């Protein structure tokens, strides 16, 4: 059963009245940057994340990143290709009859399949809701597939809860699809259309289809086909993104996966260690309690199954393949004086839900590095870009620094002053 905060339209709600309220709240946010506290928290936070990443709510269109050749190669290699017959049987056929669309993305938010009603597909092309388009929050703003990826949980977005203006006539329900063995996020299943797709029943149907797909993946691995559909078809320098997400996103070749929290922690710590880590060192880094070495080894064994061509060497454990991380990119931008770029990359703290001691230290070090660079800066735009995020919203010193360098004629001066005064009152 869906939790109340997962539902965009609670039972008994009037869609017309809700749409009118949301349109007013959307206009206010776009004009002033102020989000109505009555909005669902996931919507408020998603709007702020999107704007902090530089998205223009009035003009944004999802980027189309994959041409036909690249799209075909990724589809052929993607683990979710195994689940498409199940999705078509359980969801696409009925969605087409009902005048709806079904989309499947990879773990980076790139749409791999968009199927369903032909007339609606043609209409959706106008907002770039097409295979090959990037519907992550950073590209398309608040939307069910992108926000489901950002939160790693089922999400419904109703009409004007979308941030990009061109998407506000649409509604959608989406849920992440996980690897049944590792827990890594493989992609998202989305149902898109009108008001009817944000009912509790629609979200239940999407989640049930996701469960069937995950079961199909498990069955397929018990009797693998002669050809390996999981093999990547291209090689590019691997990347690991750990900022602001519940789990890391790993990219290698044509494959993008969202790792479980434990695997995210292990892989991040290995990228940070030039000399590698022993089993006992990893145990200490991951927990204040003594981790049984056999437990750590088991996690490392499972991690290997999602690393693809990335080589994990042992004795000590280390990455024999170079992996670029967003943590290193932020550090590099700060060292080179590219403060605005560093703030844009810094989507949030390192694996914010992790309680691994070594990750907590890394999280604190990077956050203080970004923050201290801002506090000695005269770049008001960089300061406000950080201040407007969920991780900067209550940072009194950052807001106070922004106020001290903003000219009184700035259109944001009054809003920043009011926010500083509010924080000052709250902090006593």
From TrEMBL:
<dbReference type="InterPro" id="IPR003018">
    <property type="entry name" value="GAF"/>
</dbReference>
<dbReference type="Pfam" id="PF01590">
    <property type="entry name" value="GAF"/>
</dbReference>
<dbReference type="InterPro" id="IPR029016">
    <property type="entry name" value="GAF-like_dom_sf"/>
</dbReference>
<protein>
    <submittedName>
        <fullName>GAF domain-containing protein</fullName>
    </submittedName>
</protein>
<feature type="domain" description="GAF">
    <location>
        <begin position="121"/>
        <end position="216"/>
    </location>
</feature>
